[in-house]
Amino acid sequence: MLPAIIEKLQIQNFRNLESEIIPFGPNINCIFGENGNGKTNILEAVYFLIKRKSFRKNASFPQILGIDGENPEILFSSLFKNTADEKPITYSGKLSSDGSSWHRNGSSTNRKLDIGVLFINPFESHGFHTSASFRRSWIDDQLGQIDQDYKKSLGRYNKSLRFRNKLLSTKPPQFQKQIDAIDKELGPLSLMLTNKRLEFLEDIKPFVKKAFHELFSEEHDLTITLDTKINPQRLESYYELAEKNRPKDEVLGHTHYGIHKDDYVLLFDGLNSYDYCSLGQQKMSYLSLLFAYIELFRYKFNSFPIVLLDDVSGELDKFRWSRLVEYIKNKNFQVLITTANDNFKKQLDEIEGANKIQVTSGMIKVL
């Protein structure tokens, strides 16, 4: 993972944003503006540049293309800095309905930027606490960012699973023999992925409790656990489960069991945070998990990801977001933080050395 920060970004025809050069500072970058003016679009543009996908749902090319653009294409131009050797990295791209092309330091490339990035939206606490698929997706995304073997193996698992489901739904001649062959591949993959998930949860565990205390000045035991029916030490446990569930799979026409159905439980002082915590405690727990991930990232790579923090002031009371500001000030990572809250804006305004940006109807002004 490349230790880097973003220094400049220029985009054309991306949502409502004007084609301005946006400068970023190495630490805290405050993005001000009323709701609906385009603050979050800046965060989305940075995320898209690094990941080549949006953090928003259903954000295909037509959805992110600026409606006023004369040409049906989106242009990215950016400057990053490698914080290890201080060398600049230029990265540009063009998106259209036909696909995309990218250049790094002037040369054409198909590779994504190997730079860590984390989007934080406190509103997503609800999704994390109420949706098992959201929890699985979040863990898969964050674990895949720091472990390429996990990401590649998960891709293989999902590809084989899709083929298995197609066989179950269409039932071509001798489909059961084909499923037997697929299960021979899914078994080892299931064990490997489960063990990597358990390892990730063990690695992040000490950082979660510490982050909760540093963020909110409260002492609580916060842990996330994996709920799985696979014995990660015994390959036969997968094959036994596959054989037991095959008849039901054939009736349903899809695979209704397996590690793609595993779940995660966030425990607050030993109790399920969804069942026993207030909404405020749930948001605090979710934010603590996110900032714990930032610390785990630093532990593994000796550098921080670029942090994109979207309007946290609307989800926390004054005391808690004041603690959050102090926490961010004491850390040495690059963060882009948006707010429409006047009181929060005043507190951010007081941060010495912070880069401040105003967004008004997509127009960007450095303050």
Question: Which key terms come to mind for this protein?
Answer:
Glutathione S-transferase Yfyf (Class Pi), Chain A, domain 2, alpha/beta, single chain, six-stranded antiparallel beta sheet, Rossmann fold, 11 helices
- Domain tally: 2
Poorly predicted parts: none
Outline the biggest β-sheet: 6 strands, antiparallel
Strands ordered across the widest β-sheet: 2-1-4-5-6-7
In total, the number of strands is 15
The coarse silhouette is globular
Q: What structural category characterises the helix and strand content?
A: alpha/beta
CATH class of the largest domain: Alpha Beta
Helix share, percent: 40-55%
Q: In whole angstroms, how far apart are the ends?
A: 32 Å
CATH architecture of the largest domain: 3-Layer(aba) Sandwich
Average pLDDT: 93
Q: Order of helices and strands, N to C? A: EEEHHEEEEEHHHHEHEEHHEHEHEE
Number of helices: 11
Compute the CA-based radius of gyration.
22 Å
Instruction: Could you tell me the CATH topology label of the largest domain.
Output: Rossmann fold
Tell me the fraction of residues in β-strands, as a range.
15-25%
CATH superfamily caption of the largest domain? P-loop containing nucleotide triphosphate hydrolases
